[in-house]
Each structure stands twice: as structure tokens, then as C-alpha cells.
Amino acid sequence: MIKNFDDGRSKSFFCRAATLLDLTDITNSLDQAIQKIKTDKISQDDVKKKAQILKELINEIALEEGIELVNTN
Predict the structure, then answer these.
(1) Rounded Cα distance, 59 and 72, in Å
(2) Contact between 20 and 63 (Cβ < 8 Å)
């Protein structure tokens, strides 16, 4: 996550997610984010948009689990 999705502000969020969420959920979120990036034709260089997409997906899962990671804005 940090290698491909860190926009300079997301490292703590991704580390918390990796610690608190199930690995399967994280892997599924990464797969969904990659698919959405391709579908929406987002440039691989647009790290800010890529991070936003992944953070939204992870945050949805966390909230379903009753876990509040942080504000994703």
C-alpha cells in the first residue's frame, strides 16, 4: 500500500489498517482499488487520487467492522 498508494499523507492510515484489519479485507480492497483505477482511467502518476480511492475502500470495511481508522480527507 505504501509503495503504490502513499500520497505523502497516508502512511499512518495504511499502517493502522494493516494492523487492525484482516489481511483478506486489505487484499480485496487493493484489488478493488486497482480495478477502479483502471476502469476510471486514472493515471498511475496520480498518487493522490489512487490513495483516495484505496482509503475510501479500506475505511468502508473498517466501519463495517466497527473500527474507526481516521478521517480520510
Answers:
(1) 8
(2) no
DSSP character string of the chain:
-HHHH--SS-HHHHHHHHHHS-HHHHHHHHHHHHHHHHHTT--TT-HHHHHHHHHHHHHHHHHHTT-------
What are the cell numbers at 39? Answer: 476502469
pLDDT digits (tens, 9 = 90+) for 19-53: 999 999 999 999 999 999 999 999 999 999 999 99
46 vs 36: CA distance, rounded Å: 13
Q: What is the pTM of this model?
A: 0.87
CA atoms within a 13 Å half-sphere pointing along the CA-CB vector of 7: 17
